[in-house]
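Field guide to reading this record: the first block holds the primary sequence, the second block holds the structure written as discrete tokens, and the final block holds curator observations. Each block starts with its own label. This record concerns Cadherin-12, catalogued under organism Rhabdornis inornatus.

BLOCK 1 — SEQUENCE
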Amino acid sequence: KLHSDLDKGVGTVKYTLSGDGAGTVFTIDETTGDIHAIRSLDREEKPFYTLRAQAVDVDTKKPLEPESEFIIKVQDINDNEPKFLDGPYVASVPEMSPVGAYVLQVKATDADDPTYGNSARVVYSILQGQPYFSIDPKTGVIRTALPNMDREVKEQYQVLIQAKDMGGQLGGLAGTTTVNITLTDVNDNPPRFPKSIFHLKVPETSHVGSAIGRIRAVDPDFGKNAEIEYNIVPGDGGNLFDITTDEYTQEGVIKLKKPLDFETKKAYTFKVEASNLHLDHRFHSVGPFKDTATVKINVLDMDEPPVFSKPMYTMEVYEDTPVGTIIGAVTAQDLDAGSSSVRYFMDWKNDVDSYFTIDATEGTIATNELLDRENTAQYNFSIIASKVSNPLLTSKVNVIINVLDVNEFPPEISVPYETSVCENAKPGQVIQTITAADKDLSPAGQRFSFKLSSDASSKPNFTVHDYRNNTAGIETRRNGYSRRQQELYFLPVVIEDSSYPVQSSTNTLTIRVCRCDSDGTIQSCNVEAIFLPVGLSTGALIAILLCIVILLVIVVLYVALRRQKKKDTLMTSKEDIRDNVIHYDDEGGGEEDTQAFDIGALRNPKVIEDNKIRRDIKPDTLRFTRHRPPAQDNTDIRDFINQRLKENDVDPSAPPYDSLATYAYEGNGSVAESLSSIDSLTTEADQDYDYLSDWGPRFKILADMFGEESYNPDKVT
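BLOCK 2 — STRUCTURE
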């Protein structure tokens, strides 16, 4: 209610209301100033409203008092229940956990005003899930309430949690949520075999490495806690078998390590141990986490193929053995109880097998063709044995036949030797060592002997020295040899082997006579060297060569001296424009060498030399003119030079004259004037030539010409 002191109750005052919710949530009686709420208020939506009120004169509409501001606060009531914003919850706890083990903390939120009354005071309780779990009424922490909860007994638990406001008192609002709790596995159970003895039947024909049976131990645990390792306890038959774990089924797979034979042993017994791979030390007191079972294996008799007495047969036969000769035999037996007869035959794969035959009943192998060791030294083929009672049961064995050598080839020199001997060789000197080779397969201890043939034994040139180790040396018997008399010698050498029958061959060794120095080093074996002049010795040849070299040196020196001399050759011809060209043998000095003749006609007519100084001779006194009066323009000479220049340019037979220096005439009025140094007005008197003495001996003459004497114009002619 609003009231102004100026309001006398006669209706002269009017009350107005403005601000939050004015006209929509709140209204005011303009006469009495009473404020009313025109709709329901929700503190959770807006906890307070700020309004402004004013008293106005009804007649003048003017404020009687300043505008006043006031706040309407919404008082809370318990109209909101607690809510679990994160529910439903999922939690887990290890099995066998002690009482009070932490599981999860839940939280409920109440939208009521926590500062006013108990509307927002929440208390937690369990409606479903006891006696396994408990909850703290104030914090909402869930813990285990029973010890040793076993996952293998019950794994999943659903707990219903209630949150009630007003401190849990009667009349309070409540909210609920569900917590799904799972017991996680721990390794608290050892593996156990469901039975103590396992019986397996295995055929004796089982292959090594194949699986012959499976056994399984049961572990109620889960995941890695249920992983089992199987081992065979050492004992009877344990060395013939092996066991591994199937990682998917956790079964023990028994495999065969060695072949079985029913006729040798019909049954095997051994023990298998199953144990966990991942142990939990907290449960060691429960007992050993392993179990043992007995495995009995009965070997089943099977109809097996024949068995050869050897895994491989090796035989020997001499080459050229007559066809049909028996060289050996193979034997196979049927080890089964019935003991069937065996038949033999060859495994035909290629033409090599046709060299031999086998008796189907006895298993004897005989030659079918003549054998040649030099063609094939070894034969390798297979023999198949089958049972008469069951031809489909066969076995195979490899047979190797080595062909022995018969001495049928004579020995020969290993390499077709061609050796040499020095002209100055001494008697008894070894010039070559030879060896022999035999195509036959030489037996151990075979020797080769070397000797000269009977025809060569009577000649006193060379001899053969047998070293008795399958080598021999060729020795000289003369004191010196002459190429002019005989360049080549042919020495027949007889080589014999020690086999039976003895084989021999005569091999010819070519010996070439060569020229050697005193140390025996070969200098020349060429045929051309034989035809040197008979009367010239080595010293004479050296003297002739020295004379030739001296003459060549003299000629070179003479030519070099001639080039150093200066020659003045002047070409004189009145009809030839080259009559003023000067020829020098030595290197010229450039364009200044043209001072020896008058080239005024080629120069700018405004400049002319008064005195011409020769550059090809050393002047007594150097004088440079400083003033050059202009020459008259001689157009006839210029036209003549241009005409001859064009003729020589188009004439391909005209020789070049490199010493002729010509300069184009630019004509009168040229801004750049002549670019030639001939027209330079700079005199030599303005220059310093002392630097020529620093250029070395090549410029000594120039340094003497321009650096030593002073210029005296009176001495210049």
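BLOCK 3 — OBSERVATIONS
Residues 212 and 515 are 87 Å apart (CA to CA).
The helical segments are 454-457, 538-564, 635-650, 700-707.
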